[in-house]
Write a structure and sequence with these properties.
The chain is an alpha/beta fold and 364 residues long. It has two domains: 178 residues, Rossmann fold, CATH 3.40.50; 177 residues, Glutathione S-transferase Yfyf (Class Pi), Chain A, domain 2, CATH 1.20.1050. It has twelve helices and 15 strands. A hairpin with a 2-residue loop joins strand 6 and strand 7. Helix 5 crosses helix 7, helix 6 crosses helix 7 and helix 7 packs across helix 10. The structure holds adenosine-5'-diphosphate and magnesium ion. Magnesium ion binds next to helix 1.
């Protein structure tokens, strides 16, 4: 899976920019404010229909313009064909998605065509943010390797909404609540099975990666909390919390409360690791997902790495580059100076260099 061509219209300071001849490893370098992160943001818009920096469409669109458009061509090694993708976003959030010129309704169809992994300043949320960031990470991974996950996840959202409504409307009580509780128990148990199966494969990959990225670190552990007492089935957990759920008016246990915990010698990684070490753990988590996708014979994801060298010393930056290189996947990396990444990239295939300046991209 690789993005061979990209056209960007009116994304931040990229009023009209193109990236032609993208290779496997692409380094975008340039001064602060030149538009490097915005290029990655445009790729993200193409694959996820949203920015990774803002929820406000107006912030993303070049000032004074009604909308932004990103078009790209994705080549798939699996099908040996190419797909053209297009996303247009208006100032009030209007969204139009196209695959091969045909309008599509769901973002999920886009995500399947262009699986993206982002490593940027927000990625620290995986360690220091709320559980929802970690659930999103987990869901992304399961989505890409287990095709039954997404429909089940949608079913689960419907069930929990209905059950919560049932919990609040006391007079409906018994019958209806029991029906939705039963449905929820089934769906939640399945979601959890998919997540557990995924996690069982992910954890050893993460451990091995961290051995290479940060070998001197103490006992690093990654654990999955499923969202309820693991000695109980989901059905039992729902039954046990029903009285309290009624009082509170919402479902307190289940996959919607799942979380991942990263600890070092028993302490939360966020509390004991330096910023640079945290970045390496985040890279380990993201790289492990890419490896897993690949080993499962699924399409490869594309990595967007914003400001790779920041917070990393040369030796660690080099290790991350080695792992990215070993994945044999397409990578877009930003940095300030031309040599920042090029000088630590392992031998063999050399990165294609793109200079970003005042919102324009040129290959050199
Ligand atoms: N909506 C917008 N319209 C026009 N320019 C913008 C908008 N949002 C941000 N910018 C400008 O775009 C430039 C590029 O930002 P960014 O991509 O973050 O730069 P870099 O990552 O190269 O440091 C900045 O100078 C910023 O002020
Ligand atoms: Mg930037």
């Amino acid at each position: 899976m690789s993005l061979s061509q990209l056209n960007i219209h009116h994304v931040r300071n990229l009023r009209r920019a193109s990236l032609n001849d993208a290779n496997r490893i692409n380094v975008l370098y340039g001064e602060n404010g030149s538009g490097k992160t915005s290029v990655l943001e445009a790729v993200h818009l193409l694959g996820m229909a949203r920015s990774f920096r803002t929820t406000s469409a107006r912030t993303l669109i070049s000032h004074g313009e009604p909308h932004c458009v990103v078009q790209g061509t994705v080549r798939s090694a699996l099908t040996n064909g190419s797909v053209s993708l297009g996303v247009q976003r208006g100032g009030r959030g209007e969204l139009s998605l196209r695959i091969n010129g045909e309008s599509v309704r769901t973002v999920a169809s886009l995500v399947e065509q262009l699986p993206l992994q982002v490593i940027n300043a927000n990625s620290f949320d995986l360690l220091t943010g709320t559980p929802s960031a970690r659930r999103q990470y987990l869901n992304w991974g399961v989505f890409h390797v287990e095709h039954r996950f997404f429909p089940e996840w949608q079913r689960f959202q419907r069930c929990i909404k209905q059950r919560n409504t049932g919990l609040r409307r006391d007079k409906l009580g018994g019958g209806e609540l029991a029906v939705w509780t039963r449905e929820l128990a089934k769906s939640g148990a399945l979601l959890n099975d998919y997540r557990q199966a995924y996690f069982a494969q992910l954890a050893p990959l993460f451990r091995d990666l961290m051995q290479r990225l940060l070998p001197q670190l103490g006992e690093l552990e990654l654990r999955l909390r499923q969202g309820w007492d693991k000695r109980l089935s989901y059905e039992e957990a729902l039954a046990a919390s029903q009285a309290s759920d009624r009082e509170k008016g919402f479902t307190q246990v289940g996959p919607q409360r799942a979380d991942l915990k990263v600890t070092v010698d028993g302490y939360p990684a966020a509390d004991v690791l330096s910023r640079g070490q945290q970045k390496l753990v985040v890279c380990g988590l993201k790289l492990a997902q890419g490896q897993l996708m690949q080993s499962a014979g699924h399409s490869r994801c594309i990595y967007l790495v914003d400001d790779l060298p920041s917070e990393l010393d040369t030796a660690h930056c080099q290790r991350v580059c080695e792992e990215l290189d070993a994945l044999q996947t397409q990578v877009f990396i930003t940095c300030v100076a031309r040599e920042d990444v090029a000088r630590v990239w392992p031998g063999g295939e050399q990165p294609s260099m793109f200079h970003v300046e005042h919102g324009e991209i040129s290959a050199r």
